Structures are given as C-alpha cells and as structure tokens.
Amino acid sequence: MKKNKPINLRNQIAAILVLLCVATSFAQTTPETKRASDSQLYSLADKYVKSAIKKNVKSNGEVFLQRNMDEYLALTNKKNTTTKKHKKSTEKHDELDCDHNGELLKEYLNRPHPSVETMTKYFTAASKEFGVPVEILMAVGQVQSNWTQVSSSFYGSWGVMGLIESDYNNQIAVASKLIKSSPKAIKTNAKTNIRAAAALLKSYQKNAAPKSLEDWFEATKELTGLNNEEMKTSLAERFFKVIKEGSKTVTLWKEIIDIKGKVVSIPSQKTIKKSTTGKGAATAATAAVDYPDALSRFTSCNYGTGRSGYGIDYYFVHYMATGTYEGAISWFSDCSRTTPSSAHYCIRNSDGQISQVVSEADRAYAQGVTGQGQWNGAGISTEHEVLATNLAMWDSQPMLNAAAALAIDVCDRNGISKTRRVTNGDRAIYGHNDVKLSTDCPNLTTARWNVLLGKIAAGGVSNAPTTITPAAGQIYVSTPVNFSWDSTISNADYRIQVSKSSAGWNNTDGFTTSTSPNSTVVVNDVVNTVKTYSWNATNSAVSESPVGGTVYYYTIRSYSPATGTSTYSAPVSFTPISAGCTVPGETSIIVDNLNATLVGTWTATSATAGYIGSNYIHDGDTAKGTKTATFTPTIAQRGKYEVFINFTAGSNRPTNVPVDII
Q1: Residue 198: pLDDT above 80?
Q2: Residue 216 DSSP SS3
C-alpha cells in the first residue's frame, strides 16, 4: 500500500471499523439500537400467549386477527377475601386505589384486531388525510400501546394513541368534533382512534409551514395530553427516540412491528424546569427523597398526610398494564381530580428510572379496600411501567433490577420480610389483588412474581462477572486466546460463550439458550471456580479454533448455590491476530470517523457498543450509492499491512457494502 492512499467506503455501510494493522469507527445503516431477531420475537409470543389465532379478511382487504387472551391476562374473578378490619379510623380517601380495570382490557383484547399491515394502512391514510408525519403517528402508537386498541389506563388514556379523557383534558371530545365521529368510536375502533390523533396533532401545530419532523415536536408534546410539562416533554422525547432509533416488537397476535430509524434531532429536556406544571397540575417543592436513587417528583395533592397512626408494614407491587410512566406521574400530580389516587414510587421500563411521587411518611391512595384503610395507611405502593400489549416489557432487566433494589431498601429500612405474603396481615410484599381481588394488574402471573422475588432474594444485583481480558475492542489478540474476569461471588462456576456475532444477545441467555456450540457461537463452555479460560483447540464445547482477523464477542455468567445464576456480562469484542501479521508498536495507525472525508449527509451516534472513539456514523438508510466516506491513513514506512473491517453486528446490517482499497 502506498503512502497516503485512501480507503473509500461507499454508503449502505453497517458500523464499519477499519484497522490497518488501521482502525476506524464507522456507520450502521440506521441509527437503531440492537434489536431482537424475528425468531426471538416469535418465540416470545409463543412463550406467553398460547391460544390459537383466527384470521378474517374483510371485503375491503383489511385483515383482522383474534385470539383468546383470558389465560394470558391471568385475571382473577374472585370476591375479596375476608380480612379483619383494622381498629384505627379510616378516612374517606384511604379506600381509593389505582384501578387498572383488567376485565375491560380483556374484553378489548379478545375482540378481532387489525393486523400490522392493516394498522400500517391506517397510519398512512391518517397521515395523508390530515397532513401530519406518519413517523410521529407510528411512534406514538408504539410507545402508547404497541399498536393495539386498548381500553382506558387508570389515568384515562384510550386506544392505540393513548388519547386522554379526564377532568383536566378531554382530547376524545375535542377529536370527535374534528373528525365528526363519536367518542365511543374513538375509544373502541383502532382506525378512528388513529384518525382522531392525527386530527389533534394537526390542530396542535402552530407552525404554518413545518419543514422538518423537529418542527412537530411542540405539537407532539400536546398530543401526549398530559398536564405536567416535564412529563409531557419526556413522553414526546420517547416518541422521537423511536423515530430516531427505530423499534422492533411483536404483537399479541404474533406479528412483528418493525419501525425503521430515521435521522431526526431530539430536543433536549434540559430546557424544561422540573417544577414546571400545566393547568391543574401541582408539584411540591423539591424535597429529599426517601430512596437515594429516586428522582424527586413529589406531588402536592392526591395523598393523605401522615400515616394515621400506622407504621409501614406492607410493600405493594402494581403494574400499569396500559399507560406510560410519564402519564402516571402526571396523573398523580393533577389536583383537579375529584377521586385522588397515587403511588409512592413509579419505575420506568426502559432504564429503571425511579420517581418518588409521595413521601413514605404519607399515605398514597393506591390499594383501596372498602372498610380497610390499613392497606393504604401502612403500605408503600409502587407502579411499574409495563404494557400488557408489549411482551418484551415484562422482562425488562433495568426495570426489574431497579424494582428489586427499591424493594430491598424499603423493606430493610422498615423491617418488612422480603418475601410474598402468605396471609393478609403478614409484614411482607403484596400484589394489589392480594387485598382487593376485584382489582388486578393484568398478567402479573406466578412466574413473573417469581422473577421479581428472585431478584429481591438475590440482593437486587445481577452478580454478573466483570470481564478483564481481552479488553473491549482489543485487536492483535494472541492465540491461544486467554480470557480472564473478576467476580464478587465466592467459589462460583462460570459459563463462557464466544460468538461471531453480537446479534440476539440478552443478559439472561447470552448468545444462545443452548449449552452447546454452533456455527456462530463457537465456544460454549463451563469453567469451575477459576476465573480464567484458554481458547485454542476444538472439543465438545468448542466448534472451531480462533481465526485471525475475525471479530468475536464473549460473555460470561456465574453460578453458585448461594446466589443462583447471574445475568451474562455485556458482550465484549476482540480480534485475534492473523498469521504472519507483525503487530505494530506505538506507531499504530488509527483513522476514526472524525478524520474521514465524507460525501453526503451522515449522522453520528453511539447506539451500539463496540466502536472506537466516541461514536460512529450512519447514512440514515438514504441516498444509496451517492454517499462515501474516505479514510486516508498516513503510512510512514513501506511494508505488508493488513486491513481489518470490523462492525457491530445486527439484523439490519447489509452484506453488500462496497469497500475500495486504493
């Protein structure tokens, strides 16, 4: 290779890393984060929903799917168990709760539902009819309901688009006039609900000539229907994040919703003051939280001052089933309501963020059992953000880990047993229907309880080993490859997996649920007690030896009788040295994307780990064949050089990227 000659990479490129015995970080086709494969999503649907699917094609070509959701929702239909009434006085609101109305949700989900293809037609038609971006409509529908026509959340959001009907904001009544349809149709019909949202979005747009998606951000904030300004902004940012990063989920009817990422800027929430509220909303002055990792979002209403003589004896777990984290917090801070309800803590699904809304010294109105004020009086209540219509949300490790840590902290501080209650009155952990069987959190099954309780019993931490060598992104790794790691668990055993692709990894199964290697997972072995492993020759646990110049990923988990099985460590990439390649010294040549010559519009992102430097760039999956990125290394000495192309794997990566080495 001659001095100062360029390496030219034309677009349709996936997170490319060029190493020239040179390293450079490059782009993925879209800015999407790592997503599950189709087969993983189908398996998820099969795991949780067992009933047969019926298909009905209408004369207009619209497709509807139907299946029985009774078993999936796992609702109880029992009368309240007899519980001795507490002698302490019960105030009026101490019998109020957050009603998730699981029976109505079951009625909705048991109806025939439009297929993903039909829903896509609805979004497209509404976009054209009202002149609003289809990307926003699809993203809102994904976050609010996973494209499902659902019944009301406890705070009054309805349908695919989560349109609000409440004391402070009746979007449904307004929309019914805009589209000349009934409120009932908006609540029950997916197509009408989407049209209503599109009409509202158009009515909220104050810019007469919006030129970009960003110009619709303020209108999108209004579409949330929330009255807490911070939560309104946060939820709109989530919609725009779906637009930017894309989303891939599976419906209850075993169809995949695949929203492709698109280049868009997300306005920063830093411009929003946390104390800012809308009409009818009230947030107390910033106060110290009881749980150190919680954010202070205290409400000034919808709770009872003090404990009315009770101590803290019970820890209650609620799941939202419909609605969002932001919607719940906004609702709890709405002081215009005539029937106040609240929870002490809300936990976000995506990252485990915890907000404290009511002080532990006060009573949240969450459990609500007639004549039994002790459940609110002596209870700490938590709301977990899970959509019953988005199957993957039940297994959110960030949410579950955060929930376990919170439960441990509250229970330890108050002497509450960190186990599920056996008999009502036990100082332990409760579900809502333990004390009020007529109200339930849909699909909070025994299996889901066991996952959360297991994390609480394990101390709320993953116990995942910490990888040491090879280091992340390390190249020229000598063979045999020697792995090392650290662990906080004494006398643990370990499983190590090495894969040619990071696609499909999760912290429960690693790269595969199998205990054997395959063509992609080339090492799947058990290590007893020691924290090292050497990979070289093949055997029953190793399908191939290290191949120089190949990018591999490794992940490790621990097991001990005392702590059980940990989660897997995050995948770490490395590249073994090729035969005959001389490892350069301190004069190694690295050309990062910041030094590339670009033709066309590229966007920087750090969505998928494994890149060099601070980020990599993507082409937005647009203008194919017209964009280029040229990397020009400065080579001081003639010689034989290897060029490595390394990229973070994913199901959306192309296999036909043109690479010219000149």
Answers
A1: yes
A2: helix
